[in-house]
Amino acid sequence: MIFAANAYIIRHSNKFCRGSAFLAVFVCCVPHLVRAQGASQSAPVVPAWAYPGSATHTQVAPPADFHTPIGVFEGQSDVGSAVVPGSAGYDAGTKQYTIHSAGYNIWYTRDEFRFLWKKMSGDVSLAADIAYPDPNGYGDRKAVLVIRQSLEDDSKEALVALHGLGMIHLAQRPETNVRVTDLEFRIAGRGRPGGASPDSLVNVMAKRIGIEKRGDSIALFVSLEGEPMHQFGPPITLHFDAPFYVGIGFCSHLPDKADTAVLSDVVLENAAGRVR
After folding, report:
1. For residue 143, what are the CA distances in angstroms to 46, 86, 106, 208, 229?
2. How far apart are the first and last CA of the chain?
């Protein structure tokens, strides 16, 4: 019928002043109509637990281990329930994780921070470049690379951190609800940009930090200015039962004010000796 209609319009175009215009529109539209009719759009897969309740279906809670992946991590959580909820996103093009978080600290006997995590066991290598977009954030804010036994705020943990003013540390909470202890490193250089004179001591912000778990030995790795990663200071010894949580996080060090950290080029491998 389509071809018959076209032929009829062509034959009678001298009788109908709009015949040729109609034909042009009709011919242009037909391929789109055919493609639309032939296109197959698969419906998104929705798990049964996500459907709302109805006469034939009862909605239930999602599985306990259900989380939305974010980059190489399985999920994200607000450890310690900060007054201001945190959030995080991942840009696959730039390979950047942007973390927004408040939180009083990652210290003492409990923590508050936004945590992007993956359940793992065995040896671990984790490293990331770290940047703070706002140069005026709180001096002790910290982006962290963490190994934790659980998502509870007082969990046993080992972590490395880059603080807002440049301090680096390797810290541990050796048991649940025990105060954190650490090894701290403050790095500075003379004659660097920003000094009032050649003798001024100017803080050095590390470009990249890493954490390695080799059995029960956990070490800090650093690249100050882009040189190959190298171990910094002595390791600590801490045992974790498998599985445990490994990931990245950030804490503004202000209980009611969120700040932002950007972690990029993240390396996460289930082996020791891969920090780079």
Report:
1. 35, 14, 10, 11, 18
2. 68
**pLDDT digit of tens for each residue in the chain (276 aa)?**
444 444 444 444 444 444 444 444 444 444 444 444 444 567 777 888 888 888 988 888 877 667 789 999 999 999 998 899 999 999 999 999 999 999 999 999 999 999 999 999 999 999 999 999 999 999 999 999 999 999 999 999 999 999 999 999 999 999 999 999 999 999 999 999 989 999 999 999 999 999 999 999 999 999 999 999 999 999 999 999 999 999 999 999 999 999 999 999 999 999 999 999
**pTM passes above 0.85:** no
Which residue in this structure is represented by tokens 């995080």?
88
Determine the CATH number of domain 75-269.
2.60.120.200
In this structure, the number of other CB atoms found within 10 A of the CB of residue 165 comes to 13
* Residue 43 vs residues 40, 46, 165: alpha-carbon distances, Å: 9, 9, 50
The partner residues of 100 in beta bridges, in order of sequence, read 87, 260
Contact 134, 257 (CB under 8 A): no
